[in-house]
Amino acid sequence: MEVKRMPYRFDLKGYCENCPFFEPEVEKIEYTKLEDEFPKVQNIVKCRYGEQCERAVITVNREMI
Q1: pLDDT(2) > 80
Q2: Model confidence over 25-37: pLDDT tens digits?
Q3: CB neighbours of 58 closer than 8 A, spacing ≥ 6?
Q4: CA–CA gap between residue 15 and residue 31 (Å, rounded)
Q5: Cβ atoms within 10 A of the Cβ of 47, count?
């Protein structure tokens, strides 16, 4: 039995919620096998500025300690 994969995966952090700078970016990964009838694609949704925000959160948390 084949496991069905969701066509979308969300790679977002908690601090992305309600962020005024959130800008969605979609990365498409094709994982089709030779025997598949139709192409299969995994869409990964993330924020364009996610890495910058992550560094900012780490910096702020480090300064609070």
Answers
A1: no
A2: 999 988 888 888 8
A3: none
A4: 30
A5: 20
Give the DSSP letter of residue 53: H
Of the candidates 3, 14, 12, 15, the residue with the CA atom closest to the CA atom of residue 47? 12
d(CA 44, CA 6): 10
Say what percent of the chain tops pLDDT 90. Answer: 45
- Token match 């990365």: residue? 27
Residue 40 has a pLDDT of: 84
Residues with Cβ within 8 Å of 41's Cβ and at least 6 positions away in sequence, in order, are 7, 28, 29, 30, 31
Helices (H) and strands (E) in the chain, counts: 1, 3
Instruction: Provide the whole-model pTM.
Output: 0.65
